[in-house]
Structure formats: C-alpha cells, structure tokens
Protein: Thioredoxin reductase
Organism: Vulcanisaeta distributa
Amino acid sequence: MSSAFKISVTKMDFGVSEELTSKVYDTVIIGGGPAGMSAAIYAARYGLSTIIITEEIGGQVAKSGWVENYLGYTRIMGPDLVNKFEEHVKYYNVPIIIDSVENVERDGDLFKVYTLNGDEYTARTVIIAVGEKKRKLNVPGEDTYNGRGVSYCAPCDAPLFKGKVVAVVGGGDSAASAALLLTEYATKVYIIHRRNQLRAQKYYQDLLLKNPKIEIIWNTVVKELQGDKLLRKAILQRVDTKEVFELPLDGLFVEIGAEPPVELFKRIGLALSQDGYIKVNHLMETSIPGIYAAGDCVDLTPRDFRQIVVAAGQGALAAYSAYNYIIRKYGFNRR
Ligand code: NAP
C-alpha cells in the first residue's frame, strides 16, 4: 500500500518563526504541487533564496491513485510520488510553510505576500502554482457524510472500503483512476456519469470496460446522499428519462474536476482568461512583471492535459524566468 499518510515536511502549521518572515526572499512560491516543488528545486539551484507557502503538500497528485505516465516511474502511487518530490525539495533546504495565501501586493520594487495565519512575506519575485480546487457536487447530504462515506481522495480512503460497495462520480481521468484503485479494495465500484461517453483517456476507458468489478451508470446525476451515521445510499436521477432511483452504497468518491481560485487571482490583479485561469506567455510570465505562474492554474495548460510532467516543466520555466528577472534587476550581489 502507498505511504499516503507519511507525508512529512519542514512544515509549520502554526506560528512561523520571525526568521522566516523577516527575510526578503528572491522568490516566494505559492503552491506545493508538482509545479511549485519543481520551481523550488530550480530556484534553489539558481541560488535564489526560496520559500514555498502552500495549503497542502502535493496538490492533486497527493489525491491521485496510480501514476503511470511520469518519467522515471513505471507505476507509483500519487502520495508516494509526492513524498519523492518533497524529499527532493528538502535536499535543497527550501522551507515549506503550510498556510493559505490571501493576497499579493506590490510594495515598491518588492512584493508582500499575506497569509490567512496573519503572516507577511517579502519577495523580489512570486511564482503562483496553486493549481485548482476540487469541485463539490453541492447536493444535500454531501457535507453531512463527508468523511462518513463521502471522499474526495481515493488513495487516502480506498483502503477503508475493503469488501464494500462504492461509487465514483465523474467521467474524466480522475474518476477513472479512482475507480480502478477502488477495485483493489471494494467488491463493486459504480461510476456515475452524467453523459453516455467518458472524457477519460482511452487507456483508462479500456481498463474500466474490462474490469468486472466496475459498472458504469450512464446519463445519471446524484440528487441527494442519505444514511444514518454513515452514508447508506445515493438518490440518483437519469438525465434523459428523469427517472429517480436509489443506489445502496458504503462510499462515494467525488471526482468531477476542479476550478482555479479566481478570487485570489482577481485580488492580486492578474490578467485572466475568460474561465479564470492566469494568462501567461511561454516563459510563464504573467501580466505583472516579477510574478510568474505555472501548472494547472495557468491558461497555457490545456484543460484536458493536466499532467504532472507539464506542471513540473512549467514550474522549472517559471523559476528560470524569476532568476533572469532578478539578475537583470539586481545583479548577482543583492544580499
Ligand atoms: P475533468 O477532465 O474536468 O473531468 C471532470 C468529469 O466530471 C467530467 O466527466 C465531467 O462531465 C464531470 N463533471 C463535472 N462537473 C460535474 C457535475 N457537477 N456533476 C457531475 N459530473 C460532473 O477533471 P478530472 O478528471 O479531474 O481531470 C482533470 C485534469 O487532470 C485533466 O486534464 C486530466 O487529464 C488530468 N488527469 C490526468 C491523469 C493521468 O494522466 N493519469 C489522472 C487524473 C487527472 P462531462 O464529461 O460531461 O464534462
């Protein structure tokens, strides 16, 4: 089984030392997924003083099942890959702060990065790699049974459903990957999808269709979740016939995609695409000089190609651009 629960970092989830907040960083990286961690490794190797501020370690990868397309690993669980990333970042002594960034403001030539915990960091450049937040179903019962049958993280919770009946909602790669992982534990795995065609890669579709434990419930949406102390059933509705029916369940995994934190981007004043992603050029430069962005939160990444390798590559490029900005502006003797 994966080491999903072993993630450990130089993290400070309460009270950050003054030493960390009083410095002027060459770059503050917001986000601790593959884009942010890759940016940190490149920035540190460029000799930039670097810090990562992130709500969680690993982003979507930490919630992913088997990863089979990241260079160097034939097959590795998402959380295990995150542990590898983190080990790599730690090697370069980049601190990782667990906190949520509320705003970034220009302060003369520098930037101030404000967090939910009330801390303030000063930076010459900022790299935004916050990814996206998982969508919720927004149906009655979802919050009540969150952690009591409803889950948003298959690798974290799949082992809890050994011998049980579960469902995954969604038709993309995340739903497919979660469903396949769940077949290693559950006796039956339903996929509830609102259309009659999956969005997931063909590779996944083939695996789903030949797995005897998986049954796809097409053209159907979740209307409500019900149970006692634990989730017991989902109330479903067919999109075409409007027929309402019950599905007895022990677990329901919500995998219906994710959205970028648009409000944060607006507060910072970044130029955004119509659907709320940060506009960047090929060097990951945003509309604000000195602020770079990378990974799932940028408009450059195709919506249907959110790959770890793409995020990691963009993170490296963002660090490269931050380095060039700093050298151009401050030269080599800025400390
Ligand atoms: P996604 O591709 O956006 O798919 C979301 C799925 O959820 C779609 O099938 C969508 O239905 C459905 N959906 C959306 N909102 C819904 C709602 N309110 N109610 C019911 N169903 C809803 O998201 P994802 O699967 O999380 O993938 C995100 C990105 O990560 C993609 O680029 C994907 O390729 C990548 N990813 C890659 C891998 C891998 O390569 N191993 C693994 C995981 C994710 P419709 O189809 O009708 O729109």
